[in-house]
Amino acid sequence: MPYEKSLGSKTIYGFEQDDGRIKAMAECEVYGPIASVIVLLTKAQAEKLFADNRTELIQDILPDVPREVREVFISGTTPAEYDFISGRPVKSLKAYGCYEWDPEDISDEMAAMTPTEFQTAQRKAHYQEDKS
Fold first, then answer.
1. pTM score, two decimals?
2. CA separation (Å) from 72 to 6, 27, 75, 117, 131?
3. Residue 72: closest CA among 56, 50, 95, 88
4. I need a surface site. Which of 16, 19, 66, 121 has the fewest CB within 10 A?
């Protein structure tokens, strides 16, 4: 059974994996559709997190998940979005440690770039293609 919860303008989805865990995912507006925040949950955690009237504190449901990742289940804000909103430097996808991306779309080298470096590399590649 897929899970779904709307938080602000964002929807968090959860899908059961072959091992019985739930893969919760939220798109990140800083990185766009190329990467999502991923948190693996037990079925019990997923049922509590996706409940309409959650009564348990998020830190009690996800004690081993970093605070900035738990925020996804409170407001829908991803770690990169929080850094961006707060005026802090946005890190690379790899640096956050909670993002997943398609290796066909993003190389390991690109995943180690900040969003600004990533966009610059994309523009440079596009410019070089136009020149050929």
1. 0.78
2. 11, 10, 6, 25, 42
3. 50
4. 19
